[in-house]
Write a structure and sequence with these properties.
The chain has about 525 residues and is of the alpha+beta class. It is built from 10 helices and 27 strands. The strands form 6 sheets. Strands 15, 16, 17, 20, 21, 22, 23 and 24 form an 8-stranded mixed sheet that branches. Strands 12-11-10-25-26-27 form a 6-stranded mixed sheet, covered by helices on one side. Strands 3, 4, 7, 8 and 9 form a 5-stranded antiparallel sheet that branches. Strand 18 (about 385) and strand 19 (about 390) form a beta hairpin. The chain is globular.
Length: about 525
Amino acid sequence: MKRKEFIKTSIGLGTGAMISSLPFKNKSSAWNKGIVSHMIPQVNHNRILLSISTNRPLEKAPSIKVGKKKIIGSKRDGLGQHWFFDIQDLESKKTYELKLLGNSGRLCDDWTIKTFPSPSAETEKMRLLVYTCAGGHPLSRELHPRLNESRQQFISRRSALLKKGLSFNPDAIIAIGDQIYWDLEEVLPGIAGDGANELAFSEAGQFDKSIPILGTSNEEVLKKAVGPQVADLYGTHCRSTPVFMFNDDHDYFENDKATPSSITFPPRHFNLKLARTAQGMYWPEFLPDLNRPIGLSGSNASDKALHSSECFGTLRFGRLAEILMYDCRRFTTLKGPSAGFIPRDTEQWLMNRVSSDDTLYTINVPSLPVGWSAGKWMEWYPDKLNSEGKLTTEIEKYFWQQGWQNQHDRLLQHFSNQRHKKPIFFQGDLHTFAGGQIYKSGEIDLGKNPAYAYIMGTMGSTAWPSGIRQVKASNPSGIGMEEYFDNVEESGFSIVDITTDEIEINMYKYLSGRDELSIIDQLTPFQTLKIKR
């Protein structure tokens, strides 16, 4: 489909998009989502960002009414199905009612969402739902029987786990990387893009790198690739719960890989365009923060929300906690001993915030975990899998960069030196649950203030480290760690309760093929871990 054909088709679709006004919600009835396919909000203390999609194109931009404010949506696709709203100048810690309006009235029932406490507010508690790797295309499941799930089982499991997590009424959700799996080059079983997944590509189509993404056939392919992984999972379930989502390697439409014939990161130009477009269509960028420079890489782009960041974000909840989230893929450098996963200005921002004393807790959430390795190329550590299935540094890891570990050590050393706070990491990527204290990294002694590190559970695929990579996530050489339990490769999530006295982490697990889907409603924690302040 060329551009003219796409525009002609979109006009035809738009003609049928006249939506009759929905009735006011009957309090005894279920919430009516109308024509809304998905809705993902994000908030801070005075602003709301909202990404929505509709099940048919809209000829005219919809609007959101909040009190006396009326905010016109900005279109983020070519057809008029994806819209973005930026609601500013709000009061802190206040519940707002939102109305989504089209030409002929409401497009869905009204709903509410609450802003966070102001950064200076004394706040006693907050609750988070945290997980990683929620992506996965349902077409891939039927082609990978080792995962023991049909397409429908895969969709049902993720949806049930999300609803279970939401049943705890978290103040916010943190979804750590790998929202999307649709690799264009790397060959890994179970990910659309390898030779075994011709069904996925045949149904969605192939990207044409010679033409733009929006307004062409590429837009249709992108929606078929990403929509089932994001819109179908979240739907409108999170309309009143802020969601903080950011990228890992697969969100750039590749697995991290380095061979003499191909190196996939930093992301290629077309992959970067796909990643930015997908993010723009499906979830909000990070809201600005007074303590985060707007000049950080990936921030304040002209086609994104004012002063927002696509890669480096802050969740600030009064004076109780500041959570720092960072994408370790987009700005990767390959400069030997001076290489890094994040730019130096971002590294300095992290150090400044951990050094600060304006919150009780500072929690790091990198897309790439510290403390564990699966022998992959793009890790902080040089460890590689040997023929006996063990991680070792005796085999050279092709094109691994010493600077990556140097940056890792600088961060851990600085965080440990700040004796007024415990270094804390919530992490993803490795499709497992894990927890422990890091007391040594190489020659660096962290024993007086060890780093608390946790891998929070995966909403999507499981059994990746040992089932696919043939190695369970392990502590790499040079890392001294006290692990709390043998890591568990099952689906699930963590509920994190933060109070002025402690952080409590409750981990919930589920294994498809062993457990009936119905037990998700009755899940209880298999691990409860605490960090005293």
